[in-house]
Protein backbone atom coordinates (compact mmCIF):
# COMPACT_ATOMS: atom_id res chain seq x y z
CA UNK A 1 0.00 0.00 0.00
CA UNK A 2 2.84 2.36 0.93
CA UNK A 3 4.43 1.35 -2.38
CA UNK A 4 1.30 2.55 -4.17
CA UNK A 5 1.46 5.86 -2.26
CA UNK A 6 4.99 6.44 -3.53
CA UNK A 7 4.41 5.26 -7.12
CA UNK A 8 0.89 6.60 -7.61
CA UNK A 9 0.00 9.26 -5.04
CA UNK A 10 -3.03 10.54 -6.97
CA UNK A 11 -4.46 7.03 -7.25
CA UNK A 12 -3.93 6.31 -3.57
CA UNK A 13 -6.00 9.40 -2.69
CA UNK A 14 -9.13 7.93 -4.30
CA UNK A 15 -11.46 6.00 -2.00
CA UNK A 16 -11.44 2.30 -2.77
CA UNK A 17 -15.16 1.76 -3.14
CA UNK A 18 -17.44 0.46 -5.87
CA UNK A 19 -18.98 3.29 -7.85
CA UNK A 20 -21.57 0.84 -9.20
CA UNK A 21 -24.77 -0.42 -7.75
CA UNK A 22 -27.20 -3.16 -8.73
CA UNK A 23 -31.00 -3.09 -9.24
CA UNK A 24 -33.05 -3.64 -6.09
CA UNK A 25 -33.26 -7.28 -4.96
CA UNK A 26 -30.94 -8.34 -7.74
CA UNK A 27 -28.95 -10.85 -5.67
CA UNK A 28 -32.08 -12.15 -3.94
CA UNK A 29 -33.75 -12.91 -7.29
CA UNK A 30 -30.70 -14.04 -9.21
CA UNK A 31 -30.81 -17.62 -7.97
CA UNK A 32 -34.43 -18.17 -9.03
CA UNK A 33 -33.83 -16.57 -12.45
CA UNK A 34 -30.81 -18.79 -12.92
CA UNK A 35 -32.86 -21.81 -11.89
CA UNK A 36 -35.44 -21.02 -14.60
CA UNK A 37 -32.72 -20.73 -17.22
CA UNK A 38 -31.10 -23.92 -16.02
CA UNK A 39 -34.38 -25.80 -16.41
CA UNK A 40 -34.63 -24.56 -20.00
CA UNK A 41 -31.03 -25.66 -20.64
CA UNK A 42 -31.76 -29.09 -19.16
CA UNK A 43 -34.75 -29.55 -21.48
CA UNK A 44 -32.66 -28.50 -24.46
CA UNK A 45 -30.09 -31.20 -23.70
CA UNK A 46 -30.78 -34.28 -25.90
CA UNK A 47 -31.32 -37.57 -24.03
CA UNK A 48 -28.89 -40.46 -24.83
CA UNK A 49 -31.56 -42.40 -26.78
CA UNK A 50 -32.24 -39.57 -29.20
CA UNK A 51 -28.49 -38.96 -29.46
CA UNK A 52 -28.03 -42.54 -30.78
CA UNK A 53 -30.85 -42.02 -33.26
CA UNK A 54 -29.25 -38.75 -34.34
CA UNK A 55 -25.94 -40.54 -34.93
CA UNK A 56 -27.59 -43.31 -36.94
CA UNK A 57 -29.80 -40.94 -38.91
CA UNK A 58 -27.52 -40.65 -42.00
CA UNK A 59 -27.12 -44.44 -42.26
CA UNK A 60 -30.86 -44.99 -41.84
CA UNK A 61 -31.55 -42.33 -44.45
CA UNK A 62 -29.17 -43.94 -46.92
CA UNK A 63 -30.72 -47.38 -46.43
CA UNK A 64 -34.22 -45.94 -46.81
CA UNK A 65 -33.29 -44.19 -50.06
CA UNK A 66 -31.85 -47.45 -51.46
CA UNK A 67 -35.07 -49.26 -50.60
CA UNK A 68 -37.08 -46.45 -52.19
CA UNK A 69 -35.07 -46.57 -55.42
CA UNK A 70 -35.43 -50.36 -55.54
CA UNK A 71 -39.18 -50.11 -55.04
CA UNK A 72 -39.52 -47.35 -57.64
CA UNK A 73 -37.55 -49.27 -60.30
CA UNK A 74 -38.07 -52.96 -59.67
CA UNK A 75 -41.68 -52.99 -58.51
CA UNK A 76 -43.11 -51.06 -61.54
CA UNK A 77 -41.08 -53.26 -63.91
CA UNK A 78 -42.45 -56.36 -62.28
CA UNK A 79 -46.05 -55.19 -62.23
CA UNK A 80 -46.28 -53.36 -65.58
CA UNK A 81 -44.08 -55.66 -67.68
CA UNK A 82 -45.05 -59.14 -66.40
CA UNK A 83 -44.64 -60.87 -69.81
CA UNK A 84 -41.13 -59.41 -70.31
CA UNK A 85 -40.06 -60.55 -66.86
CA UNK A 86 -41.58 -64.02 -67.38
CA UNK A 87 -39.73 -64.41 -70.71
CA UNK A 88 -36.45 -63.39 -69.20
CA UNK A 89 -36.95 -65.70 -66.28
CA UNK A 90 -37.83 -68.72 -68.52
CA UNK A 91 -34.74 -68.10 -70.75
CA UNK A 92 -32.57 -68.12 -67.68
CA UNK A 93 -34.26 -71.25 -66.42
CA UNK A 94 -33.80 -73.08 -69.77
CA UNK A 95 -30.12 -72.30 -69.93
CA UNK A 96 -29.73 -73.52 -66.44
CA UNK A 97 -31.54 -76.82 -67.06
CA UNK A 98 -29.56 -77.58 -70.28
CA UNK A 99 -26.29 -76.97 -68.50
CA UNK A 100 -27.44 -79.20 -65.67
CA UNK A 101 -28.26 -82.07 -68.07
CA UNK A 102 -24.82 -81.90 -69.77
CA UNK A 103 -23.10 -81.85 -66.45
CA UNK A 104 -25.03 -84.87 -65.18
CA UNK A 105 -24.18 -86.88 -68.37
CA UNK A 106 -20.48 -85.99 -68.11
CA UNK A 107 -20.42 -86.96 -64.46
CA UNK A 108 -21.75 -90.44 -65.31
CA UNK A 109 -19.05 -91.19 -67.97
CA UNK A 110 -15.65 -92.45 -66.80
CA UNK A 111 -12.36 -91.38 -68.43
CA UNK A 112 -11.88 -94.44 -70.72
CA UNK A 113 -15.36 -94.36 -72.16
CA UNK A 114 -14.98 -90.60 -72.72
CA UNK A 115 -11.81 -91.07 -74.86
CA UNK A 116 -13.35 -94.08 -76.63
CA UNK A 117 -16.29 -91.90 -77.58
CA UNK A 118 -13.97 -89.23 -78.91
CA UNK A 119 -11.93 -91.68 -81.13
CA UNK A 120 -15.11 -93.35 -82.35
CA UNK A 121 -16.50 -90.09 -83.58
CA UNK A 122 -13.21 -89.18 -85.41
CA UNK A 123 -13.13 -92.66 -87.10
CA UNK A 124 -16.64 -92.20 -88.29
CA UNK A 125 -15.72 -88.85 -89.77
CA UNK A 126 -12.77 -90.41 -91.65
CA UNK A 127 -14.85 -93.38 -92.79
CA UNK A 128 -17.39 -91.00 -94.19
CA UNK A 129 -15.05 -90.33 -97.17
CA UNK A 130 -14.99 -92.88 -100.04
CA UNK A 131 -12.58 -92.90 -103.01
CA UNK A 132 -15.01 -91.39 -105.46
CA UNK A 133 -15.76 -88.45 -103.25
CA UNK A 134 -12.06 -87.87 -102.69
CA UNK A 135 -11.34 -87.95 -106.42
CA UNK A 136 -14.09 -85.48 -107.20
CA UNK A 137 -12.92 -83.14 -104.39
CA UNK A 138 -9.30 -83.20 -105.66
CA UNK A 139 -10.25 -82.69 -109.29
CA UNK A 140 -12.49 -79.76 -108.50
CA UNK A 141 -10.06 -77.99 -106.15
CA UNK A 142 -6.60 -78.67 -107.61
CA UNK A 143 -5.18 -78.34 -111.13
CA UNK A 144 -3.43 -81.24 -112.91
CA UNK A 145 -0.10 -79.49 -112.53
CA UNK A 146 -0.55 -79.27 -108.73
CA UNK A 147 -1.48 -82.94 -108.54
CA UNK A 148 1.57 -83.77 -110.63
CA UNK A 149 3.87 -81.76 -108.32
CA UNK A 150 2.46 -83.46 -105.23
CA UNK A 151 2.84 -86.98 -106.66
CA UNK A 152 6.37 -86.17 -107.99
CA UNK A 153 7.56 -85.15 -104.49
CA UNK A 154 6.46 -88.53 -103.08
CA UNK B 1 -13.52 -22.60 4.14
CA UNK B 2 -11.70 -25.30 2.21
CA UNK B 3 -13.41 -28.19 3.97
CA UNK B 4 -16.73 -26.40 3.50
CA UNK B 5 -16.05 -26.20 -0.23
CA UNK B 6 -14.95 -29.85 -0.35
CA UNK B 7 -18.28 -30.88 1.16
CA UNK B 8 -20.09 -28.67 -1.33
CA UNK B 9 -18.18 -30.23 -4.25
CA UNK B 10 -19.05 -33.72 -2.99
CA UNK B 11 -22.71 -32.74 -2.83
CA UNK B 12 -22.53 -31.22 -6.32
CA UNK B 13 -21.18 -34.47 -7.71
CA UNK B 14 -23.97 -36.45 -6.06
CA UNK B 15 -27.02 -36.61 -8.37
CA UNK B 16 -29.45 -36.65 -5.44
CA UNK B 17 -28.04 -33.52 -3.80
CA UNK B 18 -26.91 -31.59 -6.83
CA UNK B 19 -29.80 -29.11 -7.13
CA UNK B 20 -29.66 -28.02 -3.50
CA UNK B 21 -25.84 -27.87 -3.48
CA UNK B 22 -25.84 -25.77 -6.64
CA UNK B 23 -28.27 -23.35 -5.03
CA UNK B 24 -25.87 -23.06 -2.06
CA UNK B 25 -22.92 -22.49 -4.39
CA UNK B 26 -24.75 -19.72 -6.26
CA UNK B 27 -25.76 -18.01 -3.02
CA UNK B 28 -22.21 -18.19 -1.71
CA UNK B 29 -20.31 -16.91 -4.74
CA UNK B 30 -22.75 -14.85 -6.81
CA UNK B 31 -21.79 -11.45 -5.37
CA UNK B 32 -18.04 -11.90 -5.58
CA UNK B 33 -18.25 -13.18 -9.15
CA UNK B 34 -20.71 -10.45 -10.07
CA UNK B 35 -18.34 -7.67 -9.00
CA UNK B 36 -15.39 -9.39 -10.64
CA UNK B 37 -17.27 -9.41 -13.97
CA UNK B 38 -18.86 -5.98 -13.50
CA UNK B 39 -15.48 -4.31 -13.08
CA UNK B 40 -14.47 -5.68 -16.45
CA UNK B 41 -17.60 -5.00 -18.53
CA UNK B 42 -18.99 -2.13 -16.38
CA UNK B 43 -22.60 -2.48 -17.57
CA UNK B 44 -25.08 -4.30 -15.31
CA UNK B 45 -27.04 -6.10 -18.05
CA UNK B 46 -23.91 -7.51 -19.66
CA UNK B 47 -22.66 -8.57 -16.24
CA UNK B 48 -25.93 -10.35 -15.53
CA UNK B 49 -25.67 -12.32 -18.82
CA UNK B 50 -22.06 -13.29 -18.18
CA UNK B 51 -22.77 -14.31 -14.58
CA UNK B 52 -25.59 -16.59 -15.72
CA UNK B 53 -23.37 -18.11 -18.41
CA UNK B 54 -20.67 -18.66 -15.81
CA UNK B 55 -22.97 -20.60 -13.49
CA UNK B 56 -24.46 -22.60 -16.37
CA UNK B 57 -20.92 -23.60 -17.33
CA UNK B 58 -20.18 -24.53 -13.72
CA UNK B 59 -23.30 -26.71 -13.66
CA UNK B 60 -22.34 -28.47 -16.88
CA UNK B 61 -18.70 -29.08 -15.98
CA UNK B 62 -18.83 -29.79 -12.24
CA UNK B 63 -18.35 -33.51 -12.99
CA UNK B 64 -14.99 -32.71 -14.61
CA UNK B 65 -13.71 -30.54 -11.74
CA UNK B 66 -10.66 -32.43 -10.46
CA UNK B 67 -10.08 -30.28 -7.38
CA UNK B 68 -6.51 -29.46 -8.40
CA UNK B 69 -7.30 -25.87 -7.44
CA UNK B 70 -9.73 -24.47 -4.89
CA UNK B 71 -13.40 -24.07 -5.83
CA UNK B 72 -13.05 -20.30 -5.58
CA UNK B 73 -10.09 -20.27 -8.02
CA UNK B 74 -11.95 -22.53 -10.44
CA UNK B 75 -15.07 -20.31 -10.36
CA UNK B 76 -13.01 -17.16 -10.86
CA UNK B 77 -11.24 -18.75 -13.81
CA UNK B 78 -14.54 -19.67 -15.49
CA UNK B 79 -15.94 -16.18 -14.84
CA UNK B 80 -12.77 -14.55 -16.23
CA UNK B 81 -12.85 -16.71 -19.37
CA UNK B 82 -16.52 -15.97 -19.93
CA UNK B 83 -15.86 -12.24 -19.52
CA UNK B 84 -12.94 -12.23 -21.96
CA UNK B 85 -14.97 -14.28 -24.46
CA UNK B 86 -17.81 -11.76 -24.16
CA UNK B 87 -15.52 -8.74 -24.68
CA UNK B 88 -13.85 -10.40 -27.69
CA UNK B 89 -17.23 -11.20 -29.24
CA UNK B 90 -18.24 -7.54 -28.83
CA UNK B 91 -15.01 -6.47 -30.53
CA UNK B 92 -15.65 -8.85 -33.41
CA UNK B 93 -19.24 -7.73 -33.79
CA UNK B 94 -18.31 -4.05 -33.84
CA UNK B 95 -15.30 -4.72 -36.12
CA UNK B 96 -12.93 -3.21 -33.53
CA UNK B 97 -9.23 -4.08 -33.45
CA UNK B 98 -8.71 -6.97 -31.01
CA UNK B 99 -7.09 -4.77 -28.36
CA UNK B 100 -9.54 -1.92 -28.52
CA UNK B 101 -12.91 -2.22 -26.89
CA UNK B 102 -12.45 1.06 -25.05
CA UNK B 103 -15.16 2.96 -26.91
CA UNK B 104 -17.73 0.23 -26.41
CA UNK B 105 -16.89 -0.02 -22.69
CA UNK B 106 -16.81 3.75 -22.23
CA UNK B 107 -20.31 3.95 -23.74
CA UNK B 108 -21.31 1.18 -21.36
CA UNK B 109 -19.98 3.16 -18.43
CA UNK B 110 -21.60 6.46 -19.41
CA UNK B 111 -24.99 4.95 -20.23
CA UNK B 112 -25.08 2.70 -17.17
CA UNK B 113 -27.93 3.86 -14.91
CA UNK B 114 -26.39 1.96 -12.03
CA UNK B 115 -23.16 3.98 -11.93
CA UNK B 116 -23.29 6.27 -8.94
CA UNK B 117 -19.69 7.30 -8.43
CA UNK B 118 -18.48 10.89 -8.27
CA UNK B 119 -16.33 12.70 -10.84
CA UNK B 120 -13.03 11.35 -9.61
CA UNK B 121 -14.34 7.80 -9.61
CA UNK B 122 -15.57 8.21 -13.17
CA UNK B 123 -12.11 9.46 -14.08
CA UNK B 124 -10.51 6.43 -12.43
CA UNK B 125 -12.80 4.09 -14.38
CA UNK B 126 -11.90 5.88 -17.62
CA UNK B 127 -8.21 5.48 -16.80
CA UNK B 128 -8.69 1.75 -16.10
CA UNK B 129 -10.54 1.42 -19.42
CA UNK B 130 -7.48 2.59 -21.30
CA UNK B 131 -5.43 -0.37 -20.04
CA UNK B 132 -5.04 -3.53 -22.12
CA UNK B 133 -7.50 -6.31 -21.11
CA UNK B 134 -4.99 -8.38 -19.14
CA UNK B 135 -3.59 -5.38 -17.25
CA UNK B 136 -7.11 -4.21 -16.49
CA UNK B 137 -7.96 -7.62 -15.11
CA UNK B 138 -4.85 -7.74 -12.93
CA UNK B 139 -5.36 -4.19 -11.69
CA UNK B 140 -9.00 -4.78 -10.73
CA UNK B 141 -8.23 -8.05 -8.97
CA UNK B 142 -5.36 -6.57 -6.98
CA UNK B 143 -6.57 -3.03 -6.34
CA UNK B 144 -10.27 -3.61 -5.63
CA UNK B 145 -10.52 -7.30 -4.66
CA UNK B 146 -7.09 -7.51 -2.98
CA UNK B 147 -6.54 -11.02 -4.27
CA UNK B 148 -3.09 -12.43 -3.48
CA UNK B 149 -0.67 -12.73 -6.39
CA UNK B 150 -0.30 -16.50 -5.77
CA UNK B 151 -4.02 -17.02 -6.13
CA UNK B 152 -4.22 -14.69 -9.10
CA UNK B 153 -1.43 -16.68 -10.68
CA UNK B 154 -3.60 -19.82 -10.53
CA UNK B 155 -6.67 -18.04 -11.86
CA UNK B 156 -4.97 -16.30 -14.76
CA UNK B 157 -2.34 -18.97 -15.39
CA UNK B 158 0.44 -16.34 -15.27
CA UNK B 159 3.61 -16.19 -13.18
CA UNK B 160 3.65 -14.07 -10.02
CA UNK B 161 6.51 -11.97 -11.41
CA UNK B 162 4.57 -11.16 -14.57
CA UNK B 163 1.51 -10.24 -12.51
CA UNK B 164 3.51 -7.90 -10.26
CA UNK B 165 5.02 -6.20 -13.29
CA UNK B 166 1.59 -5.94 -14.91
CA UNK B 167 0.08 -4.33 -11.82
CA UNK B 168 3.00 -1.90 -11.48
CA UNK B 169 2.67 -0.78 -15.13
CA UNK B 170 -1.10 -0.41 -14.76
CA UNK B 171 -0.80 1.74 -11.63
CA UNK B 172 1.77 3.97 -13.35
CA UNK B 173 -0.45 4.47 -16.41
CA UNK B 174 -3.48 5.32 -14.27
CA UNK B 175 -1.47 7.79 -12.20
CA UNK B 176 -0.28 9.46 -15.39
CA UNK B 177 -3.85 9.72 -16.72
CA UNK B 178 -5.12 11.20 -13.45
CA UNK B 179 -2.31 13.76 -13.42
CA UNK B 180 -2.82 14.77 -17.06
CA UNK B 181 -6.57 15.22 -16.75
CA UNK B 182 -6.41 17.27 -13.56
Automatic annotation (TrEMBL), chain A:
Organism of this sequence: Tangfeifania diversioriginum
Keywords of the record: Membrane, Transmembrane, Transmembrane helix
TM region(s), chain numbering: 59-77
Highest rank taxon of the organism: Bacteria
Name of this chain's protein: Uncharacterized protein
UniProtKB/TrEMBL annotation, chain B:
Keywords of the record: DNA-binding, Sigma factor, Transcription, Transcription regulation
RNA polymerase sigma factor 70 region 4 type domain sequence ranges: 122-174
Gene3D superfamilies associated with the record: 1.10.1740.10, Winged helix-like DNA-binding domain superfamily/Winged helix DNA-binding domain
Annotated source species: Tangfeifania diversioriginum
Domain of life, source organism: Bacteria
Keyword DNA-binding: yes
Family per record: Belongs to the sigma-70 factor family. ECF subfamily.
Xref: Pfam families: Sigma70_r2, Sigma70_r4_2
PROSITE patterns xrefs: SIGMA70_ECF
Record-annotated RNA polymerase sigma-70 region domain positions: 25-93
Name under which the protein is recorded: RNA polymerase sigma factor
Species classification: Bacteria, Pseudomonadati, Bacteroidota, Bacteroidia, Marinilabiliales
Keyword Nuclease: no
GO BP of this protein: DNA-templated transcription initiation
MF terms in GO: DNA binding; sigma factor activity
